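INTERNAL AUDIT FORM
Audit reference: QA-55
Scope: verify that the stored structure record matches its stored sequence.
Auditor: D.O.
Record contents follow.
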Amino acid sequence: MALYPTYPLLTERLRLRPFTRGDVDAVFAYRQREDVARYLFGAALSREECALAVQQRINQTTLDKEGDKVVLAMELGQTSQLIGEVSLIWRSLESEQGEVGWILHPDYHGHGYATEAAGVILNLAFGEAQLHRVVARCAAENGPSFRLMERLGMRREAHFRDHSITKGVWDEEFIYAILRDEWLNRQSQSPTSG
């Protein structure tokens, strides 16, 4: 299994592409926000930390080996405004497992952009990458994120209570997953497929 997508990946409204050095200010616009950092493992980022994060993401465009990540900038197709990011991590070679994730600027919540982008990533995961199972996780209080997982057809498989201390408090986390056959069946029944 390997994944070498041809970029950009286009949807009806979005363009998913590799990050560039010019993306630092746009990433800083959402990663500096406490309401975004609240649901991430780390704190809100400084501009310098954003520059380092973007530099890392520039090369995260293929899956060659277990542990590799594809992290793509999510931008509006009509305006080229960078509004967030979407990722796929290769978690297990032997078990053909991956993990999908997303971060979206709060100004763009509620428009289906993250669902659209995550759907493209799941198509890559179950198509070209030939993964068997993909998981996603979120803080238990992050309703918009777990509802997005449910819209994608993922099922809640776990609710970890007080499983780790994050930012000084006990963390609760939901784990969702979907299998390749479930995703492909769902796509074949979608009115927009074909």
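Auditor finding: record pair retrieved intact. Residues 113-126 form the longest helix (14 residues).
Action required: none
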